[in-house]
Amino acid sequence: MMADVFGADIYVSENHHSAAWGAAWTALVATGKVSSFEEIKRNIPMGEAVKPNPENRKRYKHVYEQYEKTVKAVTGLF
Fold first, then answer.
1. What residues does each domain of the chain span?
2. Residues sharing a CB contact under 8 Å with residue 13, sequence separation 6 or more, in sequence order
3. pTM across the whole model
4. Alpha carbon of 44 to those of 36, 47, 50, 59, 74: distances in Å?
5. Residue 14: helix, strand or coil by DSSP?
6. Which residues have a Cβ under 8 Å from the Cβ of 39 and sit 6 or more positions away?
7. How many angstroms separate the Cα of 75 from the Cα of each of 29, 51, 64, 67, 69?
8. How far is residue 40 from each of residues 5, 21, 30, 57, measured CA to CA in Å?
9. Which of 16, 10, 6 is nearest to 45 (CA)?
10. What is d(CA 42, CA 25) in angstroms, rounded to the nearest whole number?
11. Which tens digit of pLDDT belongs to each residue from 18-31?
12. Which of 66, 47, 68 is nearest to 3 (CA)?
């Protein structure tokens, strides 16, 4: 769904400790042990990319356009 909504490849970690990896990497960047968050890509095993489905992408884009119209229509009511 994320790939379809954002129109981009989504990579999912093969490790179920993603939150812990993120916290640890934040500490490494903060302490200067690693230079950037970009380096994490080389250190966490990732599965194959989930590719966006063009048909689903069109549907989500249409739904979002309807959402934007609705927000504009009701903004003055609150």
1. 2-77
2. 21, 44, 45, 46, 47
3. 0.63
4. 14, 10, 17, 33, 44
5. coil
6. none
7. 41, 35, 16, 12, 10
8. 24, 9, 14, 28
9. 16
10. 12
11. 788 889 989 999 99
12. 47
d(CA 78, CA 31): 45
Contacts of 21 (CB under 8 A, 6+ apart): 13, 15, 40, 44
Tokens 């689903």 found at: 56
Tokens representing residue 67 in the block: 């959402």
Phi, psi of 50 (to 5 degrees): -90, 120
Instruction: Please write the tens of the pLDDT for every residue from 31-60.
Output: 999 999 888 878 888 888 999 999 999 999
